[in-house]
Design goal:
The structure is a single chain. This protein has about 425 residues and is α+β, with helices and mostly antiparallel strands. The chain is built from ten helices and 18 strands. The strands form three sheets. Strands 11-12-13-14-15-16-17-8-9-10-18 form an eleven-stranded mixed sheet. A hairpin with a 5-residue loop joins strand 13 and strand 14. The longest helix has 18 residues.
Length: about 425
């Protein structure tokens, strides 16, 4: 037994000693450093990290030098390069990705003939038939890296990265449509040192547990700290959304965005007594020949006007603390008005004749105004990228896999 312990200890030590440091700097094409960009090996995302405000990063892994590394930031094309390319002098340039979250539909006058309801009904039916072929009804298992960043007054205060396993269950969830089982495997929270203590006091307490109590039930009893990442993955349920809107013919428009692509757009509006107004625009970017979906985007706009204001509860006030509001301001804050926009983009990959998710991007900008003319701007940026996909013999998760507490690590960004 003693010899066995020595062998195991020596093996672990050998692995630890073989880990190498990799470093570099992430910049834009204009020479600006990219803070909070994520850098991680595809085969070992837990070893990854985020860049600091100067765009610099460093991490250690024992993977071979030819292993692939992903470098990404919302609104830019992801870079894939070998570990061997990351030295102390390595500079990685990220190029802008204009399709990520910009308005997808080019403003062009749609054909009157194609907008006739009879023609539109036939087109929508053809798209639905193609979706039935493209999207498999078999379970699919994804491994993903999910990054959620929050900005306040134009400056990022922190980011949470979740490495997770997701099992998509077609036609078994909400209202008989697709749902997802989500199990976080590892979580890193990146903060600036000056707000580390404040963040710790909130995240280590039970505020989030109470805040997400109802959402936790809705999410089939997942770890409550995973709800944001699960919600982003679940958003943009393309088949369910399409079926729900297909009969609303008068709100569909066809626009040719470019050669080879056709964009189907549906817009809906809601107004509740002038207190809550919102609109949702859904864009289905299709291959013009096959009508297969290439990308799917949504843009929602919300306006809230509460005549006498609304007093936030303790958990909501704690979250406002993270936006650098003082304790006295927080206690006096009473929500009067709010407006914001949310844009979501989903990009698909084809595997064995079927379409599966490759990447999701989200951008949200909001302003909350209190009764004392106190205004709080909030921006959220999020990306989810698939690192591996399994489509054969995928089994649903057990409840114990989804409810276990996800290990969390706090990392300071300087």
């Amino acid at each position: 037994m003693r010899h066995l312990i020595y062998i195991v200890a020596f093996s672990l030590l050998s692995v630890a000693l073989s880990a190498r440091d990799y470093m570099g700097k992430v910049m834009t094409a204009d020479g600006e450093p990219v803070g909070y960009a994520t850098v991680y090996p595809i085969d070992d995302p837990v070893a990854g990290t985020a860049t600091n405000n100067a765009g610099e990063f460093r991490f250690a892994t024992n993977l071979p030098p030819d292993s692939k590394v992903i470098v990404s930031f919302l609104g830019y094309e992801k870079q894939e390069l070998p570990l061997a390319a990351l030295t102390d002098s390595a500079t990685i340039i990220l190029k802008e990705q204009p399709i990520a979250l910009e308005e997808t539909v080019v403003a062009a006058k749609a054909s009157k003939q194609r907008n006739k309801r009879k023609k539109m009904a036939a087109l929508l039916h053809s798209v639905y038939v193609q979706m039935a072929k493209d999207f498999s009804d078999d379970n699919a298992e994804y491994r993903i890296v999910s990054d959620v960043r929050m900005d306040a007054e134009g400056e990022a205060w922190g980011m949470e990265q979740m490495i997770a396993r997701v099992v998509n269950l077609p036609y078994s969830g909400h209202e008989g449509r697709d749902s997802a089982q989500f199990a976080g495997e590892w979580c890193k929270r990146y903060f600036k040192p000056e707000i580390r203590q404040l963040a710790d006091s909130i995240y280590k307490g039970d505020a989030l547990e109470r805040t997400y109590k109802d959402a936790r039930k809705m999410a089939t009893a997942i770890d409550s700290g995973v709800v944001v990442h699960w919600g982003l993955w679940q958003a943009g349920n393309i088949r369910y959304d399409f079926e729900k809107c297909a009969d609303d013919l008068k709100h569909w428009v066809v626009t040719n965005e470019s050669e080879g692509e056709t964009v189907l757009t549906h817009t809906e509006f809601h107004n509740y007594f002038g207190i809550v107004k919102y609109s949702i625009k859904r864009n289905y970017i299709l291959d013009s020949q096959t009508l297969s979906v290439r990308r799917f985007s949504e843009k929602g706009e919300l306006y809230v006007n509460i005549p006498f204001g609304y007093k936030l509860n303790r958990d909501q006030l704690q979250m406002l603390n993270l936006l650098n509001m003082g304790e006295q301001q927080v206690e006096k804050f009473r929500l009067r008005k709010a407006n914001g926009t949310v844009s979501l983009n989903t990009i698909y990959q084809r595997r064995d004749g079927h379409l599966y998710i490759l990447e999701k991007n989200l951008k949200a900008d909001a302003k909350m105004q209190g009764t004392k003319q106190m205004e709080i701007p909030v921006q959220v940026r999020a990306t989810q990228r698939v690192t591996s996909l399994k489509t054969d013999n995928v089994q649903p998760m057990k409840k114990s896999q989804m409810t276990r507490r996800v290990p969390r690590q706090i990392v300071e960004i300087y």
